[in-house]
Amino acid sequence: MSRAVIKFSSEDCGICYKMSKYDQKVAEELGLDFVDVKMQDTATYRKYRKILLTQYPDKEGMGWPTYLICDSPEGDFLILGEVKGGHPKGEFRTRLKAVLEAAS
């Protein structure tokens, strides 16, 4: 079963851009797949929209960026948790690990 971090971000978000320098690397170090979904990329957004809307039905309360950690994102997905907003690399790793530990 694949486990992935899905990043929902915007091309004009400075924090999203800063996080992109290390977020994928951190996710992969923890054995997770990484999917970058920019809201402006309609094809990719459409593919993963149902996951985002399960967590945020009206998109209210989501952060920039919002990382949803889920099992089987390509199929009958299960959302394990999330990390919202910008964080330094070490803290981002700690928050991802906490989601994974809570899920196991």
Number of domains: 1
Q: Give the ordered list of helices and strands.
A: EHHEHEEH
What is the oligomer described by this structure? single chain
The average pLDDT score comes to 95
- The CATH class turns out to be Alpha Beta
Q: What is the radius of gyration? A: 13 Å
- CA-based shape: globular
What is the end-to-end distance?
A: 14 Å
Percent of residues in helical segments? 40-55%
As for the CATH topology, it is Glutaredoxin
In CATH, what is the homologous superfamily?
Glutaredoxin
Beta-strand proportion: 25-35%
Main beta-sheet annotation: 4 strands, mixed
Please tell me the CATH architecture by its name: 3-Layer(aba) Sandwich
Description:
With 104 residues, the chain is α+β, with helices and mostly antiparallel strands. The chain has one domain (3-103): Glutaredoxin (3-Layer(aba) Sandwich), CATH 3.40.30. It is 40% helix and 25% strand. It contains four helices and four strands. It has helices at residues 14-19, 23-29, 42-55, 89-103, and strands at 3-9, 33-38, 66-71, 78-84. The chain has a four-stranded mixed beta sheet with strand order 2-1-3-4, sandwiched between helices. A hairpin with a 6-residue loop joins strand 3 and strand 4 (78-84). It is globular. The two termini are 14 Å apart. The mean pLDDT is 95.
